[in-house]
Model the fold of this input.
Amino acid sequence: MSSNQHQQFKRKAGLALQRRHVIGNNPSAFVPGEIMDLSEFQFTFSTSQQDVETPNSAAIRVYNLSRETAIGLQKSHYDKVSLQAGYEGAYGVIFEGNIKQYRLGKENATTTFVEILAADGDLAYNYAVVRQTVAAGSTPDVRINASLAAMAPYGVAAGEIMQFSGGVLPRGKVLFSPAPGLIRNEAQYQSATWNISNGFVNVTPLNGYLPGEAIEINALTGLIGIPEQTEQGLIVRCLLNPKISVGSLVRINNKDVNQIMQAGPDVAPVRYNSYVGTQFLAHITADGLYRVFVASHTGDTRGQPWYTDLVCLAIDPSTDKVLVP
Done:
C-alpha cells in the first residue's frame, strides 16, 4: 500500500481547547496556556477551508458537558481550538483556530450541547500591520517576510511559500499596510493564490500545487458516490482524510467521473456579451490529476457522518498547469 493510501477503520478524533495569556497591552497577541481535552465527549464538527485569503471556519458541537463546565468555558478564556480526526494510521489536524463564540443549548429535554464557532488566522488577518522600511533592491521575499513577521504575534507562521520571480524594487520603500494586503499584492503579481490554513500562510501559484505525492481517491481509499463534473469544478466526496488540504494534489480515476452535457433540449444557452454559447465545464484530464480548491470536513464521533467534500480543478500533466473552466 502506497504512502498516500490507508485503510479506513477505527475512527479517531481529538478536540482540545487552549487558554492563552495576553502579551503586554496587546489584546490580540498571546502565549500558550492551559489545555482542556474534550476528546472523550461526543462531538460533531463541520469545517470549511477554501483557497481564498479570507479565514477558514469551523462549527463544533460538544454534547452533554456539565452545566458548570459549559458556563465555565464562556468565562475562562479558552480561546483556541485544535480539532483532529481520521482513522488509525491516518490521523491529523483538520482545523486549528481562534474561538469566536460559545453557544449553549439543548437538542431535546435530555441532550445539551455547547457549540463552538471558530476562525483560522482571523486575528492576524484583521490586526497584523506592517510598519517597515525596505532598502533598494528588495525582492518579493523580503516583503512577504515582513508580512509574516507582523502576523507572528497572532499565532500565524510561514507554510508553503512559492519561489518568487521578478518584483525587485529599484528604490527603497516604506511599507505601512495591513499584512494581508501586502501578501495579496505579491500573490497577484506572481499569478498565485494565498490562504491561511491551520495557522500557516501558504502562497501557491495558480498553475501549481503544494509539494507532496498525489493522494489517491478511489473505491479502495474511501471514495463515496460518483464524482460530478460541474461549472465550478469536480465535486468529490470521500471518507474523511486529514491528508487532503487546500492546494494539495489528488488523483481520481476518470472512469469514476460523471460528465454532464453542456446543453440539451431543456438547457438554455448562456450569453457571454454578444456571444451565445453553452456553459463552460471543469476540465477532466487523461491521468486524473486535480488540485484541491475547497476541502470541507464533517463528522460525528458517535454517528454516521465522517466525510471530506472537495471541489477540484484539473492539472495539465504536460505543463502542471491548472485548467480553469
The longest helix spans residues 140-151.
